[in-house]
Amino acid sequence: MHVCVIGAGVVGLCSALELSAVADRVTVIETQPGVGLGTSRANGGQLSYAHVAPLAGPGVLGRVPGWLLDPDAPLRFTPRLSADFWRWCSRFILACNRTRSRQTTEALIRLGALSRELMSDFVDRHGDAGFSYRHNGKMVITRATATLAGLEATREFQAGLGCEQSLLDAAACLAAEPALASIAHELAGGLFTPSEAVADCRLFCERLRDLFGAGDNRVDVRTGERVLGLVRNGDRIDAVRIGDDELRADAFVVCAGLASRELLARVGVKLPLLGLKGYSLTAPLRDPQAAPARSITDADHRIVFARLDDSLRVAGMIDLGQESDRIPTRRIQTLRRQAASTFGAAADYDAAEIWTGLRPASPHGRPIVDRAGAENLWLNVGHGILGFTFGLGTARLLATLVSGAAPDIDPTPYRL
After folding, report:
1. Rounded CA gap, 401 and 346, in Å?
2. CA-to-CA distance for 360 and 155, rounded, in angstroms?
3. What is the pTM of this model?
4. pLDDT along the chain (416 residues), means of 10
5. How many other β-carbons are positioned within 10 Å of the β-carbon of residue 61?
C-alpha cells in the first residue's frame, strides 16, 4: 500500500512515522521549503499530556465580555462576516457546558496517555538528542485563591482518570521550582504534574525527517511542492495534483492545518476549523539559574514557559477571528512584559525570536481523525494548541484506521 500524506508539520510527519509501519511506501508532500515551518515552528514547547481540557469549557462564556474590553486579554475575539465563522462559534457555544467539556476531557486524557507512551517509546528507541527533549514535569501556577480552588477541582476529577497530580502551596511551588523566587510573595499555589515534558517541535520534525532519510527509504518527504487538488474517480481519490504532475497512491491523508479546508472543500468536505492565532518568544538565556527547570504555565496570564536548551520559549494568547500572519506590536509587548515580570533575569526578551501561528481548532476541542469524502481519503486535523502533544497519538489512531487494525483508543470522539 502506498499512502500520500499532505502536510509536513508535526501531525503530518507523525502520521508518516506510524503509517510506515503498516504501508509499503509513504510519500509526504509539503508546500514549505522545509519541515515544521508552519504552526509547528515555534509553539509553546510543552508536551502537556494531562492538561488537555478544551477551550470550550463551562466558565468561558462568562469571561468573554471582560476579554473583549481588555486589549491585553489572553483571548481576543474579532467577528468576521463569514457563515463558516459563525457556524463554528455556534458549535463552540453549544460545547461550553460541564457535561460536554468533561466528556471531551476524558477522551483527550486517554489520547494524551497514548501520546505520552508513544513519545517515551520514541525516545527509548531513538534517543532524546537533537530536539531539546526533557521529561521535567509541569507546574501550573496562580496568584489567586479562587483559581487554586479550580486547580484542586481539576486534580480531583482527573485523579479518577488516572492522572497523577499534586496541589502545592506557595512554599512547595518555590521548593519545586526555585526560579519562581521573584514572585514567591505573590503566589497562591499551583498544580504539579510529573508526567509532562518539553521539546522543540520544529527540531522534532527535523529529527523525523532525518530518521526517514536514514532508514529503509519507506518514507519520502518532498518539500517545496504545493498540492493543487485531489483527483477524484467515483468514490475514490486516484491522485493529488502537484503543478503539472500527478502523484498516484492507494490512500491519502490530509494533515495540512487550515489549508486543509480549501483542499477538502473541492471534494465536498466542509471542515469545521478556525485558526487560534497565538504568539511566542524564543529568548536567549542570560542567567540559566534564573530560568525554570520545570514547564511552567501561568494560569492568570495564560502563558507558558519552556526551557529549550539555551533559550526560553514563552508562548500564549488566542486571537480568534484573525487568520493572518501579521504580528500586532501590542501582543508582543504584553508577552514580553508578562515574561519579564515572572522570570525577568532569565532571558533577554528584547533579543527574542518572534513568531505567530494559526493553530487549526475544531469547535469542541477534539482532533478530527476520520475518513471523509472518499473511501480512501483520511483526515488528521484540528488539534488546536495541542498538535505537538497529540501528534503521535492521533497518528497511531490514524494508522490503525487506515490499515483496518484494532485501535488503541475509541475512535468515536474524533470523527468528523
Report:
1. 46
2. 28
3. 0.97
4. 99 98 98 98 98 93 81 89 95 95 98 99 96 98 98 98 98 98 97 99 98 88 97 97 96 98 97 98 98 98 97 97 95 97 97 98 99 98 99 99 98 98
5. 13
C-alpha 171, offset from chain centre: 31
Q: What is the CATH number of the domain that holds 250?
A: 3.50.50.60
φ, ψ for residue 335 (rounded to 5)? -65, -45
In this structure, which amino acid lies at residue 164?
E
End position of a domain, from candidates 360, 377, 393: 360
Please report the beta strands in 69-206, taking only residues with DSSP state E, as ranges in sequence order: 75-77, 138-142, 166-169, 189-193, 197-198
Cβ-based burial of 377 (10 A; exposed 0-12, middle 13-18, buried ≥19)? buried
Contact 267, 230 (CB under 8 A): yes
Cβ burial of 173 (10 Å; 0-12, 13-18, 19+) is buried
Number of DSSP helices (H) and strands (E) in the chain, helices first:
10, 20
Is there a single domain that holds both residue 169 and residue 313?
yes
How far is 43 from 337, CA to CA, in rounded Å? Answer: 19
3-state secondary structure of 300: coil
Q: How far is CA 189 from CA 152, 198, 346, in A?
A: 10, 22, 21
Same domain, 311 and 345: yes
Cell numbers at residue 304, please? Answer: 507558558
Say if CB 365 and CB 413 are below 8 A apart: no
